Amino acid sequence: MQLYTAALSPYSAKVRAALYEKSLAFEAIELPWKPAGFLSKPPAMLAINPRGQVPVLVDGELGLYDSTVILEYLEDRHPRPPLAPREAAARAVCRQLEDLGDELTSGASGALIDELWRKPAGEPRDATRIEQAHDGMQRAYARLESQLAAGEWLCGAFSVADIACYIPVSFAGFVGHGPSEAHPHVQAWFARAGERPSIARVRQEMLDAVKALAG
């Protein structure tokens, strides 16, 4: 398998974490990136994904894009170890929680990263946008807190929902808007998830990319 990816792409990080969890070998094709965007995009990737976004997975003759579609394919193609419940209703709930992670990535967490990290030093920050994004994260933490009251993981066992939600929560925390003591279950879950080798590996890849940009 090949994966067109970018270390700081949260959607790519989801797929890399799943591949690591399932111990699947793949060739990572890293796209050059700066905070302003991608510096170039391989024609082979664009031929598969007309949106020009990562991640893109190539498995033999099959080319897939959209992180959720890729995660579902990996679960169908390589069901062990499982990253989603088997029972239909539980699986549907898990998909909704995975979608919450994507919603935060494109919404509140993404806005915080845009305002507090991606903007060059000295450029004005949008205080209203930051406040709204903070409130959005707080609502998400409340939802996750309720979900985690029943157990250690969002869907009973570690799943794509935990992966998808961990990424934007980590991004929010990176810029000072992580879960607080008001959400102890979320704090414990975040620490627990961060100890998994797959998540720790993805987090280190991201930190190394941040350091490379700073250098």
Can you walk through the features of this model?
There is one protein chain. With 215 residues, the chain is an alpha+beta fold. The chain has two domains: 2-77, Glutaredoxin; 88-214, Glutathione S-transferase Yfyf (Class Pi), Chain A, domain 2 (Up-down Bundle). The protein has nine helices and six strands; from the N terminus they run βαβββαββααααααα. The strands form two sheets. It has a four-stranded mixed beta sheet, covered by helices on one side. Strands 3-4 form a two-stranded antiparallel sheet. Helix 1 crosses helix 7. The longest helix has 22 residues, at 127-148. The model has no long low-confidence stretch (mean pLDDT 95).
How do the strands and helices of this protein lay out in sequence?
Elements: E1 2-5, H1 10-21, E2 27-30, E3 33-34, E4 37-38, H2 43-48, E5 56-59, E6 62-65, H3 67-77, H4 88-106, H5 108-118, H6 127-148, H7 160-174, H8 184-194, H9 197-214
Describe this structure in a few short sentences.
58% of the residues lie in helices and 9% in strands. It is an alpha+beta fold and 215 residues long. The strands form 2 sheets. A 4-stranded mixed beta sheet has the order 2-1-5-6, covered by helices on one side.
CATH architecture of the largest domain: Up-down Bundle
The strands making up the biggest β-sheet line up spatially as: 2-1-5-6
Rounded radius of gyration (Å): 17 Å
Strand percent estimate: 5-15%
> How far is the first residue's CA from the last residue's CA?
31 Å
Mean pLDDT: 95
**Low-confidence parts:** none
What is the helix fraction of residues, given as a range? 55-70%
Number of domains: 2
Contiguous helical run count? 9
Q: What order do the SSEs take from the amino end to the carboxyl end, as H and E?
A: EHEEEHEEHHHHHHH
Morphology: globular
The tally of strands reads 6
Multimer state:
single chain
Sketch the major β-sheet. Answer: 4 strands, mixed
Task: Output the CATH class name of the largest domain.
Answer: Mainly Alpha
Q: Which structural class best describes the helix and strand composition?
A: alpha+beta
Kindly report the CATH topology of the largest domain. Glutathione S-transferase Yfyf (Class Pi), Chain A, domain 2
